[in-house]
Amino acid sequence: MSDQLSTEHLLGIKDLTTADIELIFRTADGFKEVLGRSIKKVPSLRDITIANLFFESSTRTRVSFELAEKRLSADVVNFSASGSSVSKGETLVDTVNNILAMKVDMVVMRHPDPGAAMFLSRHVKANIVNAGDGTHEHPTQALLDAYSIREKLGKVKGVKVLIVGDILHSRVALSNIFCLQKLGAEVMLSGPSTLMPKHMESLGVRVEHDLDKALRWCDVANMLRIQLERQGGDGVANFPGLREYAMRYGMDLRRYGRAEKDLVIMHPGPINRGVEVSTEVADHANSIILDQVENGVAIRMAVLYLLAARIPRTAV
User: Fold this and answer.
1) In the 8-state DSSP scheme, what is residue 267?
2) Which of 9, 45, 183, 193 could connect to 72 by a Cys-Cys bridge, CB 3.0–4.6 Å?
3) The total number of structural domains that make up the chain
């Protein structure tokens, strides 16, 4: 059983092996125990400097990474594209190289362009963690989602997971599909046909546009947010409106009851209450949405810790 990741970067789930994912989960188990202590800090990365580069707005992911870094005692540099030299025409590589000249060891980056993290990994000498690249991947979200399922149900293998909503514009959906399949789960997608990429069956997933039918099939329902900011602001080109979307693909107590089982409810956040899920469902006893948030810190601690072990130096 290996105690080291097979990769120097976390660019996407598709680059991880099943053994990598299981190692991240085992490491996260230890860090969850740490987070439950009165003193929640460990000195694991006290000689590591991490730069958080967010070229796209984020609150939850950025805060989760920053908290994970500080819990590991890393030195943290936060960088936002707004008001930076990027807005003045500086290239991505020049920006990062300037930061690396300040002796940064690792870069956590969110960028609106798919493939930006991979591009960066080929041009700078630092460990790169993809915190979301356009509509491509969001690997730590997928890891924390699968970890949360494992925590709730005791396993991931054989679990039937339904992903509902805006699949077309979601980086969470693709990473979740890759991660869940590597761990042996079955995956189904549901949502408007206008928000469903046509190639999805080729990834080995089922597509069911009738949400009630899909809910009777699944054990876990992961309700994705409508990405209005990626649809010109109001989404009218893809579906009639939010009210109509909520009626067909939103989860309220009535729809939950029709499934006639104790479905586990997930949401990567932020939640549009009354659209993807009602308040009653979001706060339901079988909702693990807040567990996902808590587990996000442990998973990101594990990823950073394991990647730091790949940095050539005298001590971690």
Assistant:
1) -
2) 45
3) 2
